[in-house]
Please model this.
Amino acid sequence: MSHKLVDCRGLACPHPVINTKKALEEAGVNTITTIVDNDVARQNVTLFAKNAGHQVSEQQKDGLYHLTIRRSDTSTAAKQTDENAGQDPTNAAFPTGLVYYITTNELGQGSPDLGQVLMKSLFTTLAAMNPSPTALLFLNTGVYLTCEGSPVRDQLEKLYAAGTTVLSCGTCLEYYHIKEKLLLGNISNMLEINNWLSGPHKVVTIA
Amino acid sequence: MVDDPYLFGQIAAANALSDVYAMGGQPLLALNIVCFPDCLPPAVLGEILRGGADKVMEAGAIIAGGHTIRDDEPKYGLAVAGLVPPARIISNATARPGDRLILTKPLGTGIINTAIKADLMSAKAVEQAVHCMSTLNKEASAAMQRYNAGACTDITGFGLLGHAAEMAEASQVSLEICFSAIPLLPETMEMARMGIIPGGAYNNQEHLGNKIAFDKSIRPEEQMILFDPQTSGGLLIAVAETMADKLVEDLTGKDIQSAVIGRVLPAQNKLIIII
Model:
């Protein structure tokens, strides 16, 4: 629960983002303040932090920008509404900032038919959640769920429209030759996926 | 940008030759313009010039000489002259409402060059970006002439939106561009989302922001990709609707990654509308 200062005065892009990212990855750091002296760095650090699901506030002092970044991990997210995930404060008691790590297109071991029924049921449940999950990460056969012919297309579109980040593993899309069939969301790589898995959010694995 | 001096020379030459191709011309001769420091081995300069010469030869032009000065940082560019019959000049001021817009290279080189500095890119993605930057717009230019392109510009430092806005303004039309139709270099989106965006993109945004309408579904990082300054980018071609798919097919057959990314509209209150 410590606070850390990251002084990026005199540094040009991309270094302020990289230094901020490293500071946030340190164990036990809860809040950091990044100081930058130029507008490009201000905008890039803000973009990075918001897209990683953190909260950012900004103060201008003596021509410098002080960007205070609060990690939105699950313990604090339960009390605060996550900026990315739903705006209804009456639901603040629900845990927010959930990331689903989905590595299969069938839920559980056993009959493939049953696995598909269960997967559809899971997505119907996710689509009804308020706030919506922060991100869905699809790997291996999980990428079939984000491509044409997906049995959960309607639910996925609803989640995406609600602001959930949808990432599909590029290597997996290429392996199964379905890259051109991606319905929505972004193609991602292991670096970004690992950032989500090791980040502040609670990760739920569907394998 | 790239560490390999031979590749650097190739990219600089492809970038310099692009203007002639955008006008439907054939490069004729090029002059080297070089700044080079005393502290680097002369062999490096040799490799830069060899890269440039090879690209100029590939373009069917010759290097007719040039000029070199001492400077702290190596810089290389070329002044290029080309030929085009006046009746066949393709201008950026002649896009017609109803035309389709075709982009002949994926976007992302500015963001990728920034990410390379932070050592965030995979080797494979860097290789694809370098291949894209060092590819001449020669085939794209020849193909657009076969399909009677109405207008053309090449995408460089002002980003897709900067050069598209110039085309819209000069042609007195508006352009509608569909973000999801635009091809991107591998890892561009991931890097943009992480805030790895060069200062030049923000300059372009500041310069153009009020002339462009973004649909609310376009995320901030997606907007910045459209403002990203490109090194040796592709051509943006306006062509009759009936020709658009055939042109893309033709380019695909020549290993040029192109796509229909939008259309030309009668002038609206914004120069460009991003959907």
